[in-house]
């Protein structure tokens, strides 16, 4: 039995730091498979279907819009997203999210990504399998204070963007941008923001995106304070972050316990 074709509309939201958001820069080669309860589409070369949104007169340059017809896979459960990296450090893409709309059934599916795809970035992945985002239970927001300490070995100013994700026993935050783009020797930077109450903090992730290829940041430590519960979490690091080592997963420091002799 043949499966009918339907129209799919895809919105790909680029992070503001991604050079692909420039209207003059070529979008990296993106491939796409939609998986649903009835089956999967063929592998689609998404770049061939980029077009202008008819429902927006002033389209945001950070949003790429695509329309194509393919097999009706029913209710969407998953997508496979991949890029052609071509062994080039300049061939990457920083995606915030993807949204798929099916006009004939008034359905919309969102896939938060918030990461870089590229062989020379983060974990080097060029392909992802993504599940449909399900709206999480709402958590109240609280205030966090973040202290980051640049190490004494920082001989020149580091230029880059830093993002932080906080994981707790209740939920996690999204990616939080911390800095103004520069770090100096032995400098303590302070940031305050409101984010979901994650409960007891279990770990953090740090992402460093250098603004030039030789920019390195010597991160000495991170401290997180939660004033409403009088909690403080320290993360000793003593590590260089650069284009090759741009992602850290860290757990809170626990004071060692010594048994009495």
Query: What is the element string, with H for helices and E for strands?
Result: EEEEEEEEEEEEEEEEEE
Largest sheet: 5 strands, antiparallel
Please state the CA-atom Rg, rounded to the nearest Å.
Answer: 21 Å
Assembly form of the protein: single chain
Mean pLDDT: 82
Count of runs of 4 or more consecutive helical residues:
0
The outline comes out as globular
Distance between the termini: 78 Å
Strand content: over 45%
Total strand count, please?
18
The low-confidence runs, each spanning 5 or more residues with pLDDT under 50, are none
Amount of helix: under 10%
Assign the structural class, choosing from mainly alpha, mainly beta, alpha/beta, alpha+beta, or little secondary structure.
mainly beta
Model description:
- The protein is mainly β and 261 residues long.
- The protein contains no helices and 18 strands.
- The protein has strands at residues 5-14, 30-36, 39-40, 44-45, 63-71, 76-83, 93-102, 107-117, 127-131, 141-150, 158-168, 176-177, 182-183, 188-196, 201-210, 217-226, 231-241, 247-250.
- The strands form four sheets. Strands 2, 3, 4, 6 and 9 form a five-stranded antiparallel β-sheet that branches. Strands 11, 12, 13, 15 and 18 form a five-stranded antiparallel β-sheet that branches.
- It is globular and about 60 Å long.
């Amino acid at each position: 039995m043949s499966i009918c074709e339907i129209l799919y509309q895809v919105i790909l939201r680029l992070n503001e730091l991604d050079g692909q958001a420039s209207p003059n820069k070529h979008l990296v080669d993106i491939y796409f498979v939609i998986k649903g309860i009835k089956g999967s589409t063929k592998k689609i070369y998404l770049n061939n279907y980029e077009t202008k949104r008819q429902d927006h007169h002033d389209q945001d340059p950070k949003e790429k819009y695509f329309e194509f017809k393919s097999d009706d896979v029913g209710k969407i459960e998953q997508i496979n997203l991949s890029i052609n990296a071509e062994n080039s450090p300049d061939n990457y893409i920083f995606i915030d999210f993807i949204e798929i709309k099916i006009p004939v059934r008034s359905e919309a599916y969102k896939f938060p990504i918030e990461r870089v795809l590229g062989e020379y970035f983060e974990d080097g992945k060029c392909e992802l399998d993504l599940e449909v985002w399900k709206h999480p239970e709402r958590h109240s927001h609280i205030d966090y204070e973040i202290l980051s300490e640049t190490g004494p070995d920082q001989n020149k100013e580091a230029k880059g963007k830093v993002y932080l994700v906080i994981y707790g026993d209740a939920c996690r935050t999204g990616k939080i941008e911390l800095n103004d783009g520069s770090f100096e020797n032995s400098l303590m930077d302070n940031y305050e923001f409101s984010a979901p109450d994650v409960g007891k903090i279990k770990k953090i992730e740090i992402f460093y995106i250098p603004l030039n290829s030789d920019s390195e940041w010597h991160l000495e430590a991170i401290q997180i304070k939660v004033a409403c519960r009088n909690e403080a979490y320290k993360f000793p690091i003593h590590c260089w972050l650069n284009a090759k080592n741009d992602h850290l997963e860290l757990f809170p420091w626990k004071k060692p316990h010594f048994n009495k002799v």
